[in-house]
Design a protein that fits this description.
The structure holds three protein chains of three kinds. By secondary structure, chain A is of the alpha/beta class. Chain A has 15 helices and eleven strands. In chain A, the strands form two sheets. Chain A has a nine-stranded mixed beta sheet with strand order 3-2-4-7-1-8-11-10-9, sandwiched between helices. Chain A has a two-stranded antiparallel ribbon with strand order 5-6. In chain A, helix 1 packs across helix 3 and helix 4 crosses helix 15. Helices cover 31% and strands 24% of the residues of chain B. The longest helix of chain B is centred in the middle third of the chain and has 20 residues. The chains are: A alpha/beta, B alpha/beta, C mainly beta. At the B-C interface, helix 2 and helix 3 of B face helix 2, strand 7 and strand 8 of C.
Amino acid sequence: MSRVFIRSAGAIPVGEYWTKSIGDLMADAATIALDAAGPIKIDKIIVGNMMSGYANHQEHLGALLASSLGMRGIEAIKVEAACGSGGAAVHEGYISIKSGEYENVLVVGVEKMKDMDTPRTTKALAMAESADFTQAVGASFISLNALLMRLYMNTYNVEEELMDYFPVIAHRNAVTSPHAQFRRAITVEDVKKSQVIADPIRLLSSAPSSDGAAAVILSAKEGPVEILASEVATNELIIAQREDPLKFLATEVAFKRAMQKSGISASDIDFMELHDAFPVVAALALEAMGISKSGKAPQDAANGRFDLGSELPILTFGGLKARGHPVGATGVYQIYEAYLQLAEKAGQNQVKGAKVGITHNVGGVDTTSIIHVLRRVD
Amino acid sequence: MNLNVGIFGYGAYVPMYRIRTEEIGRVWHGGGAGPNRMKAVASLDEDILTMSYEAAVQALDMAGYPKIQAILVGSESSPYAVKPAGSILSDILGYNTILGVDLEFACKAGTEAIQLISGMVSAGTIDYGLAIGADTAQGRPADELEFTAGSGAGAVVLGRPNGKEIARIMNSVSYVTDTPDFWRRPGDKYPVHLGRFTGEPAYFAHITSSVKMLLSETGMKPSDFKYAIFHQPNPRFPVEVGRRLGFTDEQLRPGLLNDEIGNTYAANTLIALAKVLDIAETGDKIMLASFGSGAGSDAFVIEVNSRKDDDDSYVPLSERLKNYKVIDYATYARWRGKILK
Amino acid sequence: MISGLIPIAYWRNRKIYTRMIGSRCRDCGAEFFPPVRVCKKCGSRNIEEKEMPRTGALIAYTKLTEPAQEFKEYSPIYLGLIRLDNGVNVISMIADADEDSLRIGARVKATLRKWTEDGNGGLIYYGYKFKVIQ
């Protein structure tokens, strides 16, 4: 079995691309990574994406990217796991290299959401949930998270404001994040004053919709960053059918496995790119990983425990909230950001002496959870 | 017609929303109000099927869920021109070996359903049937009927009398003519009516005829009855026709509902019947006459057999009607599809 | 025209939507909604249909002002996470929602309402919604 390294990584800034198609976006990101890799023969292309069919009327993204890059004959597929599509694509790239069958794999995450209006975007995101029993009853993705947030607040006696520190951390870090969609700081008051989308989730506590693409080239040949573990776990699709809706089982299982496989422990982690779609998701994920005690993650965030210069920085380039969330691409953006940290290319957002990082990418409401453990190669 | 059909269960559903007629007057007439204070308005997510379901479940529950072999839904506001609410309701209630279909005869479609189901029960072709009248009546904006056009549903479970029935329909008369008082062409959103012509030649003539014929056939007189229920297009007409026929205010008052819920069209007399059956005692006789534009009237002699089983969870209609929420014209227009999109 | 639910998919599931038909494991007695193929408690495939109770309690609720495409004309949508009297949880729209009476622990009862329709000419979708019982 091979070890898995990151040879190069690249990304386009997250934002709104009126003049670029989904094909353009992924080719642009792929080209950045390819150019940074130097001469290289790519054996396989994996595209991570959630909603190209509904949003862009375009499936078959693997073949599309291969054609676009002029790589006739190459193996190419698309991988989908809702908002975890990017992480799932990286995972498939990881096991491709690990198996020894492939030398270099190009993994691209892409999403183009901005051709859709809000109701259609809401519909597209809701497709992560049961069509027959969740979408059919009018529940949107945000509304499910809102129900979870209310349950969380009521169970642990946590005020809404306390949970808003997660978006505050995200935005603070995004100010100096070159590829972030929103590069301005916000306060807890700003979040509280913003429009309610699904009570108690507000505009400024909700990850945005975005266009974006990020690419990494995984290689069996040694590079500056190594992926030590790549674990995927799932939870019951319909959250009403979970024994405890507040238990992020998929994250808990994936994280445990990743710690075991990589041989590192929680105290070794120097930073974490967390899936902060909503404050309650960030909180429950940290609690599922054992990093915060049950009901205590928001307080930890408020206490500065997760700030950039502190004990466990999270969302170092803005996370989903401020770097942006082009859903199928996010998981690859996270790997790109971890790569920047570990290769010491993070500029003003550098976590000093970062040796080990975690990425946490989720599809649905902890329905698929994907954990990567990465380390700096000295 | 001699009937001898038992009412084993009854149900009435009135949506919890009301609009005051003075609000309608404010928007369209610069003030004033209708002859009624308020009318019931179905919510955005309600229609005659959902309301029929509610009324039907009440009636079936009261009757002990007998095997129903026919469901007839009388309405002039079916959400489909083709696809009967009766078939959808049958499927929902779990009956597939059944006659499930709709009827239309303006405001008398509900009592028509009773006539037809009674016929099937009397003939022995079915053991039990469910007769429903339901409407989300369409009131033309700025028209006087907008004050009263309301929403509601009433249901009765009918079967052969076996001593356990709540009431028995003893006799009935159906009287029908061709009278152009009120009609609606397919594709049109609102009916057309001829104003004052809907009074004497239509409402009064038909109810007077059917009731007089029924009294003559049965040899009964108004004083034989404890209660009298007449179709209520507004608060005044049922009282006026009742007095003309020789009924007293005491007999009429318990069934009057138009002032608070408006005219629920095909559900009208069925909902009034539910209200009266909630308080009627063994041996009480009820005269009930509906009126449907076009026009016709169904009249019934109903005798109360026994009170329904005392059930703590049953809330009488008059209690349920106390719980309502008033809405404004904008909300009403949105919910009832009166805004051009 | 708003295209929303798929008519044939609705027809396929209509008993679940209008009568809350779920599942019961014949081996361990656990109940589920919506129906399952495999018992989530004991793993058995010995599953039978079971109608769910129509009453329960609200354990979470929200008011959604940005629903998906096919519910756009029904906004705002009130949703609840309800624990039915048999312990099974269900996510459902709340009918006749009154913001003052929406609270955790409120008793709720199932009724039948319109979920949405495919515009003026399309199919009408009916299904369960829960009302807060005073």
